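Researcher: Re-running this chain for the archive, since the previous output was lost when a drive failed. Same request as before.
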Amino acid sequence: MIPRTLQPALRALARKFPIVTVTGPRQAGKTTLCRATFPDKRYVSLEAPDVREYAARDPRAFLGEIRDGAILDEVQHVPDLLSYLQVEVDAHPHRGRFILTGSANFALLQTISQSLAGRTALLNLLPLALDELRQSSRPPVDLLDVLWRGAYPAIFDRDLEPADWFPSYVGTYVERDVRQVLNVTDLAAFQAFLRLCAGRVGQLLNLSALGADAGVTHGTARAWISVLEASFIVTRLPPYHASVTSRLVKTPKLHFFDSGLACYLLGIRTADQLRHHPLRGALFETWAVAEIFKARAHRGEPPSMSFFRDRKGAEVDIVVERGDALLAVETKSGQTIAADFFAGLAAFTRLLRSMRHPPNVRPILIYGGAAAQRRSDAEVLPWSAMDGYNWAG
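Model: Regenerated structure tokens:
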């Protein structure tokens, strides 16, 4: 198993709560992490139809057999079980008693908010972050390969090629989850919608246009994007709200949690195809968004991320609220630094400094080159140094 950064937070919260719930996309490594962290706990998978039927038909008897505690995998399959679990942990609130995992948090989080509020800690496990990839059988050496290959553990644990793995992942998990939740009847339209989302990576999200291009209504597009977001396939990065909101764009930007999946959906079959691809910059931006998200989520911190764009076109790709500072991050996939790379950072800094109580802003440029620099107007980080920066505080 590739060591996961989330493991210390998982152990720590199990010493404080009777239940810890780990959510995240399918195949992100949740089961492997939980079983490695708690090797002495009984493991029960609710993915198995017979176990699922037993838990749903007779939840009291089911929980009676694991009264000493267990890892319950894919609990979203039996949502009613959590109400009985609430009664059980209220009667015997031993810390670290149950570890729950769930891949589809659109079903899971609603049930948890109703049944387990205050009784469970919530953690998100995403695909491998850059620091975790360095400990794999294929440590990253080239940016284009990192963007193309993505970060799902199976690709590295089993030494698979993305072109061999992603087709089954999309068909087996992504499409199945959406069909289960929304009863999608036109699978071809959904497949087109998914590819169109990849084509809009790093762009402002216009659901009406996206739905029209996919041949579905605005309401259908909204429902589909919500399920993809709840399944940790995509995320909608909100715009940053300063005190002068009338001057700012208020539409979210669309990003993928895995650049490799986005590449596959775009038909990019080799890393070299990215060298001159028109979406290389957008894919680099979405990779950077995911890396910062992972750096925070895998340490138990909320994302607290947004982007900045004013109506004149000045933009900062990522704004991170880190407590002691506001990190303004611009991403550029090129290997050579140009003066205009810093224009958006300068505009954002000027805007915030004009406020009555300006926050501490740290401008950062992440680029595709290899040299770190400390300039007067920004800190410059090469892509390979992202995992060494303190994004979580």
